């Protein structure tokens, strides 16, 4: 009689091999089976077996390369884009969006629907459902799941947004759970900074990095730290909230209730607020970006203040965690070369030299919507293979509750 573990091991091995190939396919260009064997280190027969299994599950698809190898048309394999899709949802203080992508994770403006974030949670769910259904109806592919990126404090254990200083309608809510009820499709909740880490790690410049930090300085100021391929979560998954460290005890009131939090001084939102105060009229971030480009001298004081506190935030991360790379996600001071150079100069003044010498500071190329897509793709690949992938998303299945299978599209 065979021992039980002998039957378990081949199944585990098969799932690990599936995960390995999904990893390679998610991170790279379409490949032939021979190329997949070379890159993955698996034998050609194993690759063929695994691909057949992934084809049967609709996770990958084959297509004709148009070239002929040894008289036969060369078949390439890629993540499914024709038969399967996923949705990414980004909830943010001012604007939210729903985006559709194939399982290759490629996002585009044509497949993205943006809208001003409504004032109530019920209205927000209505809009997310409406845009989600529209994107699903526009495609012939089956929707396999939805990744939902949220700001605020996300408790991994309780599976909810505990508190959202910049968008209080999310307090104590789990929009992924509620959207799952409405759409009948598996949804996964992910904190926005973890989403950025996942997006950069799966599709961006962190694909080969096991140690890096992600600093989001858009609306709030959030930090994600990846060490040895693992994201630092803390006891409940709420680690990284340096945006609510006090930087100016006499500063303005923050959404969290305290005064002078770093995020009231070092973010895009802070710069927009300062420009608004100077002009004494409401301004959008796009208008501020245009004003800074057209007449930067008019707002040099505001730029200097925010650049100074942003440099303090970056230096704090470098001095504390000694990362090889810091990705900074922001717009007004980050996406503009001269202003970013000004920030870097201030970082040099405020960081311990040996730590700075080992660290690269770069604007992130990924986005929260790419991160939301990466989060649901992580869920999908984990559901189909062994749970050993190092960088985990914040919200996986609720304790004691099996994740629902994506409903087939009608
Ligand atoms: Zn605060």
Task: Tag the structure with descriptive keywords.
2 domains; 40% helix; single chain; 410 residues; Nucleotidyltransferase, domain 5; 20% strand; globular; binds zinc ion; five-stranded mixed beta sheet; disordered C terminus
In terms of topology, how is this protein built?
Blueprint: H1 4-27, H2 33-40, H3 44-56, E1 60-69, E2 72-79, E3 84-90, E4 95-102, E5 112-116, H4 121-137, E6 142-150, E7 153-155, E8 160-163, H5 175-183, E9 187-191, H6 192-203, E10 212-216, E11 222-227, E12 230-231, H7 268-279, H8 285-294, H9 300-321, E13 325-329, H10 337-350, H11 353-357, E14 360-363, H12 368-383
Parallel strand pairs: 3-6, 6-9, 10-13, 13-14
Antiparallel strand pairs: 1-2, 3-4, 4-5, 7-8, 10-11, 11-12
The structure holds zinc ion (ZN).
Question: Would you kindly provide a written description of the structure presented here, covering whatever features stand out?
Answer:
The chain is an alpha/beta fold and 410 residues long. It has two domains: 130 residues, 2-Layer Sandwich (Nucleotidyltransferase, domain 5), CATH 3.30.420; 157 residues, ATPase, nucleotide binding domain (Nucleotidyltransferase, domain 5), CATH 3.30.420. The chain has twelve helices and 14 strands. A five-stranded mixed sheet has the order 5-4-3-6-9. Strand 3 and strand 4 form a beta hairpin. Helix 1 crosses helix 3 and helix 9 crosses helix 10. The longest helix is centred in the first third of the chain and has 24 residues. The radius of gyration is 23 Å and the shape is globular. The C terminus is likely disordered.
């Amino acid at each position: 009689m065979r021992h039980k573990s002998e039957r378990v091991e081949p199944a585990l091995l098969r799932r690990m091999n599936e995960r390995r190939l999904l990893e390679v396919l998610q991170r790279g260009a379409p490949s032939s089976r021979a190329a997949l064997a070379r890159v993955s280190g698996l034998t050609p027969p194993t690759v063929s077996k695994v691909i057949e299994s992934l084809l049967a599950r609709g996770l990958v698809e084959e297509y004709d390369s148009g070239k002929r190898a040894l008289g036969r048309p060369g078949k390439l394999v890629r993540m499914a884009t024709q038969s399967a899709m996923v949705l990414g949802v980004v909830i943010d203080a001012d604007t939210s969006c729903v985006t559709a992508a194939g399982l290759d994770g490629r996002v585009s403006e044509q497949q993205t629907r943006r809208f001003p974030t409504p004032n109530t949670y019920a209205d927000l769910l209505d809009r997310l459902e409406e845009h989600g259904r529209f994107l699903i109806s526009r495609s012939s592919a089956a929707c396999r799941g939805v990744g939902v990126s949220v700001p605020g404090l996300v408790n991994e254990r309780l599976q909810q947004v505990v508190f959202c200083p910049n968008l209080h309608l999310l307090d104590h809510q789990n929009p992924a759970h509620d959207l799952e009820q409405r759409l009948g499709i598996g949804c996964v909740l992910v904190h926005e900074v973890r989403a950025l880490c996942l997006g950069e790690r799966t599709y961006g410049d962190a694909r080969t990095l096991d140690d890096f930090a992600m600093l989001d300085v858009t609306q709030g100021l959030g930090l994600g730290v990846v060490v040895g391929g693992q994201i630092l979560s803390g006891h409940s998954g709420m680690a990284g909230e340096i945006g609510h460290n006090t930087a100016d005890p006499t500063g303005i009131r923050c959404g969290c209730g305290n005064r002078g939090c770093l995020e009231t001084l070092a973010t895009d939102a802070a710069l927009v607020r300062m420009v608004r105060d100077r002009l004494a009229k409401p301004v959008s971030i796009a208008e501020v970006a245009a004003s800074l480009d057209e007449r930067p001298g008019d707002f040099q004081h505001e730029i200097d203040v925010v650049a100074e506190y942003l440099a303090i935030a970056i230096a704090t991360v470098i001095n504390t965690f000694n990362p090889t790379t810091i990705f900074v996600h922001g717009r007004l001071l980050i996406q503009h070369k001269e202003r970013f150079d000004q920030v870097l100069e201030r970082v040099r003044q405020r960081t311990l030299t040996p730590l700075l010498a080992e660290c690269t500071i770069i604007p992130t190329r990924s986005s929260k919507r790419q991160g939301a897509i990466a989060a649901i793709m992580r869920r999908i690949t984990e559901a189909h293979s062994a749970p050993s992938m190092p960088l985990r998303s914040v919200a996986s299945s609720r304790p004691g509750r099996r994740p629902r299978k994506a409903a087939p599209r009608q």
